[in-house]
Amino acid sequence: MDVELDRVTFRYGRHTALHDVSWTFGKGVNGLLGPNGAGKTTLLSLLTTVSLPSEGRILLSGNDLGTSQGRRAARKLLGYVPQRFSLASEMRTRDTVAYAGWINGLSDAECLPAAERALESVSLSEYARLRVRKLSGGQRQRLGLAAALVHDPSVLVLDEPTVGLDPGQRLRLRELLGELGEQRTVLLSSHLLEDIAQLCGTVAVLAAGRLAFAGGNEEFHGLLEANAPESTSSALGSPFERAYDTLVNSLGVAE
Amino acid sequence: MIRPSRWPLGSLPLLLPAISITLAVFSQTLEMFSWPYQVWARTSQQFVSEPLIFAVPLSAAAAAYAAGRLTGPDRITNLASSLRSGSPIAIRQLGLLGGVFTGSYALGMFPLVVLTILTAHAGGPGPLPVLTGLLSVFTATAVGYFAGVLATTAWVSPLILVLGFLAIQLNMASSGNFRAIVPVTYDGAGVGQTPNLSVVGYRVAFMLLVTTATSLMASRALARSRRWKIPSWSTGGMIVLLLAMLLAPLGTDPRLAEAASEPPRTCRTEAGVRFCVHQAHQPELDELIAAAEPVYQAYGSVPTHGEQVWDSALLGGSQADSRPDGIVGVGIRVRTDMTGSTRTLQRQVGYGLAGSPACAARFPERSQPGMVRTVLESRHPADIATELSYWLAGRAERTSGLRPRISDIPAFDTASKQEVRTWLATHERRITECALDSRP
């Protein structure tokens, strides 16, 4: 399930949010890294068919997202967990996922069994009959993931999925995403280097709307090491993070 | 139990308003259950009367609540990137809400309809008022749903409830100028009338347009990740059309009903007087004859202007003053209080025999009688006719053994019964022309 961006540009009025971005990625967990305001969310809105590129072309499993037919076909294949999403607190966990199944194209008869499978895949089966308001932050995040997985999409797009989670919840979610990436094309957008570095086989770095880097994880590590500052005595964070900061600075964008 | 894929909010947001609507509607029809029989025109008209006062705001507010809870743009169950976004969601949710609330409205009206089937004497349901009533509930649901989609919060629901009640009151606060567009009306087609197709058609078209426009706009908003946006040309066109339809009838006095051309009637002649009632009022014929007889007895003869007594439903409903010559019009209301009914009928027959309809036509400024004392002291032909009507109704009241009300008025108290009758016999032409210039 390849996703191909070919010279994609996106403008809001006079502001160009994405410049000439070309990147191809496939099965496995793929990381999209960049500081806040780099254009990650804009890129995801294009990939999830919510917006259309001003220039260039996006193909999702061969479906051209520039055509309505292509977008419709792509939506069947897509699962999306936005950075900020809400849940109706009075709804039951299972009902939420079942309804998400219908929204994502399943027939009424398929929704409940699919919801149960999706809840099982994110280890929420025991909470199926619970009201959403009773779930913890991490469980809600997994519920969002179940809602995106319920129709068994081949491409899963996640925008900052670990934000707001405690270290334990973040660890569990990472494990889960790793498992999901074995079967699907997963695009993980994050500004957290740690998420990307530990999970992703390929990495793209956006800076000021331009693709500053796209390559394998090892290559990305190499780039980071090359950018590692010699003196770290006064800097905060892990050596990786300091290297990333230096990389971002070298690309001309401060976070 | 509804599948969660069809309705994920649980049964309460559907059931609670549905039960409330059914109970409110049923309670608004309860008074009619005490009537000895039902009349189809009245039952049909009830679909667009009091029951809507609660049903419209309740269904709109409940739909706004559901939309506010379900359709927020950041809901994981309502993402613009989903395969089903926009119209499939609106059709499913609005279809269910509108169906349930319209159904609960119909359910609340159902006992009255059954009772009417069992007890009505003529006619059948009026499809237009029934359709308009049901459509009003669906339209209110669509408007409430649209408001909830735009507001993205269930907190808009109480506001919609209040606005719904205010919209219902609009017609009453404006002497009927809004009757072509508001759901609740009290002056639709009664017995002996037919709906004015152009005005009722306008109402139906307006409600269909509101339903279509709000559903379409809700669908479009649901397909976007941002709910508010500058309207497209087509949306702008719909809004302009809606406003035009809203404002167009304001300068007019739209009539919802017109007289039926050949209303079915039942007639009987008693003591030289032909009595006719609308077939829907057939059980009232005996009472009408019994009530009118003492008035004619008081008059002493059957004058040419009173040879027939007709149910006003046969004369174009409430247009009793525009009756043909020789016919006394009486408004018949189905009621359980026989005494009140007899008294009212006698007053109306007395009014007709005294020539007061001619006075109302000749002196429209005096169509409402003044204070009793003023009437008795006046020399105006209309007041003398009014005094005559008091005398006739008062004598009939005594003959029927009713508690004195009108008979307490000292009408023609200086003349004996025989002197009044002699005076009547010699003044019949003046009575029919409203030209009385002396008292007996």
Automatic annotation (TrEMBL), chain A:
It comes from the Bacteria. One of its GO terms (molecular function) is ATP hydrolysis activity. Keywords: ATP-binding, Nucleotide-binding, Transport. The keyword Lipid metabolism does not apply. Residues 3-233 form the ABC transporter domain. Belongs to the ABC transporter superfamily. This is ABC-type multidrug transport system, ATPase component. It comes from Actinopolyspora mzabensis.
UniProtKB/TrEMBL annotation, chain B:
The keyword Membrane applies. The chain crosses the membrane at residues 51-72, 93-118, 130-152, 159-180, 200-218, 230-251. The lineage of its organism: Bacteria, Bacillati, Actinomycetota, Actinomycetes, Actinopolysporales. This is Uncharacterized protein. Keywords: Membrane, Transmembrane, Transmembrane helix. It comes from the Bacteria.
